[in-house]
Amino acid sequence: MRSLVDLISLDRIVTLKSKTKEEALQELVDVISRSPHVKDKDELLKAILEREEIMSTGIGLGIAVPHAKLNSVSDFVIAMGISKEGIEFNALDDKPVHIIVMIAGPNQQAMYLRILAKVTLLLKNERVRRRIIDSKSPEEVMEIIRSFGDE
Q: Kind and range of the H or E element at 118?
């Protein structure tokens, strides 16, 4: 199992400009689509928005994990958006979301669940969340993820 560091790259860690949930999802689809593994950006956006209509991916603690598994995505890839102000996301705890981790991948449920577990374990740690929100650069976020040691 690859580490989170292997699934995310510096160009897919961004400070979100968006102020709404829909804008943030669009912004992160644009970011995650930089990966050569994402073949159909429009299909990914449609799948992300449809998933969000079923139930918010705002899981609480200021975290959202929007995701889609599609045949047009050849391997798992992650993008992370950070909002210092927070975005209303209809999260389970009704609190604004500050960290959005978007996961796109092929239709491989077991691998998806392992990746989701790693993301959740990382972000359940309040100190890690605070450091990510307060970070000044993608390099700093990557170092926080690396130092957490998700191997």
A: helix 109-124
Q: CB–CB of 73/106 below 8 Å? A: yes
Q: Which of 61, 57, 120 is nearest to 90 (CA)?
A: 57
Q: Which of 60, 96, 80 is nearest to 141 (CA)?
A: 80
Reported pTM = 0.94
CA torsion sign, 72 to 74 to 76 to 77? negative
pLDDT digits 0-9 by tens, 84-110: 999 999 999 999 999 999 999 999 999
Q: Which residues on neighbouring strands pair with residue 104, listed in sequence order?
A: 68, 77
- Reference 119, options 139, 134, 135, 105; nearest CA is 105
Domains of the chain from N-terminus onward? 4-148 (3.40.930.10)
Residues annotated as catalytic (active site), given as ranges = 67
